[in-house]
Amino acid sequence: MKEVIKIEGGHALKGTVRISGSKNATVALIPAAILANGPVTIVGVPNISDVESLAVLLRDLGVDVCFKAQDHIIIDPTHMQNRPMTQDAVQKLRASYYFMGALLGKYGRVEMKMPGGCYLGPRPIDLHLKGFEALGATVNYEHGAYIIEAKELVGTKIFLDISSVGATLNVMMAAVYAKGRTIIENAAKEPEIIDVATLLNKMGAQIRGVGTNVITIDGVETLGGCFHEIIPDRIEAATYIVLAAAAAEEMTVENIIPQHLESLLSKLEEIGVEMKVDIDKVTIKGRNPHLKATDIKTLPYPGFATDIQQPLTALLTQAEGQSIVTETIYTERFKHCHELNKMGANINVMVPSSFINGPTRLSGAEVVATDLRCGACLVIAGLIADGITEISEIYHIDRGYENLDGKLSALGAKIWRETIA
Ligand SMILES: CC(=O)N[C@H]1[C@@H](OP(=O)(O)OP(=O)(O)OC[C@H]2O[C@@H](n3ccc(=O)[nH]c3=O)[C@H](O)[C@@H]2O)O[C@H](CO)[C@@H](O)[C@@H]1O
Ligand SMILES: C=C(OP(=O)(O)O)C(=O)O
């Protein structure tokens, strides 16, 4: 038995959709909260399976986790114990690796399996480990788990060869209690980094420079509980904006920070999508039947986000001419193209680029959500395709999109789940 999403295409969407709290911020904020010595309340937590997996991991560590109201979580690490993290739940998501930095920072020791997450080609964690070693830790890999330990963590200068989001946050978490000053150079600048540093500073950490590529962390003796509200999810927002450009009569996407979406919004404007951008929302004014093809290169923030290129590809199948999407972050992130071709798209992939020839009429087909954003891409394609699209492996979608089918149904989409043999 498997659960699938089915979509009957061709129904124009209309209305307003509210964006949830950021997945990629939340999944780092939750492990960061265990660095406190008191309860941390986080508001705006999206109802996604990555959060459920993190709650399982927290409870296994003896952390009190309480979900309150719709989107509040209270994390109280007062009685936690530093147990090995070798259970299967570690591999259900990528972000379990933030427990490496958090546990190392708090206890000077962590034992953990390799994390999971979307397979986008190889996703090494060498920069995280090098960062921990630079702070004074030793790293060993025994019986399928990393054992990272240090008698004392001491601040130092760390240059990241790649401005990795995960490595920046992991080193930051390990360094908050380290002796002296840690300087991370070539740090990632994604908005989620700022959100996590904001939480840690509210807890009492001394972190400066976030949002630039040099972050300074002065170690402190203790951290306390606090209250924090998560930033809106810029990738979920981007997905709905692209989806509106593909399938809406008129649609407003609210609870967004438009500055986080500038690279996407300027691209959409360039290809002919008519929009009105406000302080915290954007209204997309219907589908342009003569969208222009374009070229995109994914880059670290504030460049064009790799997580958005897959959903955008569904829209580019409708643009006139050849669009070229070049991936510089995950050069193999093109499985969605094969799935779109099953629906009638005309896309050639020559790593690190996809060549999208449009416009093509899409037809419903049985397709596979090979990863989270591939799933989002196929949902958009299904909304504009003739007939019924059946998407399998939807647990990927549920890792990162809160109530996707509910939000789309409210906009007038014909979308539902079925359990099939
Ligand atoms: C939970 C989360 O926030 N996931 C996001 C995060 O993933 P994640 O934090 O895993 O991505 P990174 O920013 O670390 O990866 C960027 C690049 O650096 C490489 N690299 C990274 C670490 C390392 O130790 N060695 C190494 O070579 C990666 O293979 C990749 O090519 O940022 C990605 C890039 O914006 C997004 O697609 C993911 O949605
Ligand atoms: C790749 C993604 O997530 P993760 O890093 O959690 O696998 C994503 O959000 O698109």
From TrEMBL:
EC number: 2.5.1.7
Gene name of the record: murA
UniProt keyword Transferase, yes or no: yes
Parts forming coiled coils: none
TM ranges: none
Biological role: Cell wall formation. Adds enolpyruvyl to UDP-N-acetylglucosamine.
Keyword presence, Protein biosynthesis: no
Protein name: UDP-N-acetylglucosamine 1-carboxyvinyltransferase
2-(S-cysteinyl)pyruvic acid O-phosphothioketal sites (modified residues): C118
Keywords on record: Cell cycle, Cell division, Cell shape, Cell wall biogenesis/degradation, Cytoplasm, Peptidoglycan synthesis, Pyruvate, Transferase
Residues in Enolpyruvate transferase domain copies: 8-407
GO molecular function annotation: UDP-N-acetylglucosamine 1-carboxyvinyltransferase activity
Catalytic site positions: C118 (proton donor)
